[in-house]
């Protein structure tokens, strides 16, 4: 079984930055593409970013491209999401995901961490 635990969420003013972390446990971690989704209240979950095991293949949603950076440290079993130039519309619960099974489809999900961006 794989467990994903997000951290780093919080409250930030528009234009500010946050870095989310996701610590993974379980031996399959090193084989997994990992990524991030987010969900605002009353809205559908949406894809944010994904990164392959080697880091050589990265995918960003259009809404965050140029502002967010996904990275990973396989030695620490951790994936990161650096979020810069945050906007109020970035407010959501952010979920770490792992084990890509198709285009923007993942098998494992974390519990989520709240990100709130104030105007």
Element layout with pairings:
Blueprint: E1 3-7, E2 10-13, E3 18-25, E4 34-39, E5 46-51, E6 58-60, E7 68-73, E8 78-83, E9 92-102, E10 105-109, E11 113-118
Give a description of the structure.
- The model has no long low-confidence stretch (mean pLDDT 94).
- With 119 residues, the protein is mainly β.
- The chain has no helices and 11 strands.
- It starts with a strand and ends with a strand.
- It has strands at 3-7, 10-13, 18-25, 34-39, 46-51, 58-60, 68-73, 78-83, 92-102, 105-109, 113-118.
Question: How would you summarize this macromolecular structure in one to three sentences?
Answer:
It contains no helices and eleven strands. The chain has strands at residues 3-7, 10-13, 18-25, 34-39, 46-51, 58-60, 68-73, 78-83, 92-102, 105-109, 113-118. The mean pLDDT is 94.
């Amino acid at each position: 079984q794989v467990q994903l635990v997000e951290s780093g969420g919080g409250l930030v003013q528009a234009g500010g930055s946050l870095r989310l972390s996701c610590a993974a446990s379980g031996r399959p971690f090193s084989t997994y593409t990992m990524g991030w989704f987010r969900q605002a209240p009353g809205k559908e979950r949406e894809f944010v970013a994904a990164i392959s095991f080697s880091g050589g293949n990265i995918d960003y949603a259009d809404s965050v491209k140029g502002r967010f950076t996904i990275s990973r440290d396989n030695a620490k079993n951790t994936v990161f999401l650096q979020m810069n130039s945050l906007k109020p519309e970035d407010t959501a619960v952010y979920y770490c995901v792992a084990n890509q099974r198709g285009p923007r489809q993942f098998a494992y999900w974390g519990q989520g961490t709240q990100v709130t961006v104030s105007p």
